[in-house]
Amino acid sequence: MFLFYYTVLRLLFLSSVFSSLLLGACSIHTTCLTRKDQIFSKWYLQKDSPSELSVYQICGEFSYFSGKKKFYSRFHWKQSGYDCYCVTLINPFGITEMILHVQFGLAEFIDNQGKCYSSDNPELLIEKVFGISIPLKNLQKWIWGFSGDATNIRLNSLGYVERMNYSYNGRNWIIQYNSYHKDIIPILPHSIELYQGNNRIKLNIDTWSFK
C-alpha cells in the first residue's frame, strides 16, 4: 500500500514539474513573439513618410566611390515640400560642385562652371551630367529610415531599418544603415551607405533641422 501511494505522489510531482516547465517555455516563446511583433509593428507604422515630414534641412558629408574614382564633399539638402528640394555639394576647398533644384519632377542642374541643365528626369540628369547614379526619388524616404520601394527589409534590435534591397531599371541596390542619431526625437539616420555594383555612396548626416 505504501508503495502504491508513493508511486502516485511521485507521478503527481513529476506531472507538476512538467507542467511548470511547459508553461515557462510557452511564456518565454510568447515573450519573444511579442517582442518581435512589437519591433515589426514599430517599423510598419513608420515605413511610409508622412506628409508632415516634408519640410526639413539636413547637412553632412557625401562620399562616392566607383573603381578608382573617388569624390568627397559636404552636402546641404533643403526639402520645402513633397518632391520639392534643393541639394548643394561643396568640395573640401569650399567650391560649389553642383546645385540641383527639383520641383514636382522638373529638375535644374548647375555644375561647377555655372552651366545650367534641365530635365523632367532628375535621376537621369544627375547621371548624365555628374556621372553618378543616385535613386533620388527613394532617397528622399531612405534618409528618414523609411523603406520606400525597397524590399527584403531587415530591422535592428530597436526596430529601425538596418538593411534593405532596391531594384530599378536592371540595377540592384543595397541600402545599409550603419548608425542612427539617438540624441534627437524621432530617432533618425546618421550614416547610410548605398551599394550598386562597383558604386558606393555614403551619407553621413550631421545635423537635422525642421524649420
UniProtKB/TrEMBL annotation:
Indicate how the chain sits in the lipid bilayer.
Lipid-anchor
Predominant localisation class:
membrane
Q: Does the keyword Signal apply?
A: yes
Which parts form a coiled-coil structure per UniProt?
none
Please give an example of a GO cellular component term from this record: cell outer membrane
Compartments reported by the entry? Cell outer membrane
A GO BP term here is: protein transport
What InterPro entries does UniProt report for this protein, alphabetically? LolA/LolB/LppX, OM_lipoprot_LolB
Q: Tell me which UniProt keywords the record has, alphabetically.
A: Cell outer membrane, Chaperone, Lipoprotein, Membrane, Palmitate, Protein transport, Signal, Transport
The job of this chain, per UniProt, is described as:
Plays a critical role in the incorporation of lipoproteins in the outer membrane after they are released by the LolA protein.
Alphabetized HAMAP family for the sequence: LolB
Instruction: Tell me its family.
Output: Belongs to the LolB family.
Subunit info? Monomer.
NCBIfam families linked? lolB
Q: What is this protein called?
A: Outer-membrane lipoprotein LolB
Q: What is the lineage of its organism?
A: Bacteria, Pseudomonadati, Pseudomonadota, Gammaproteobacteria, Enterobacterales
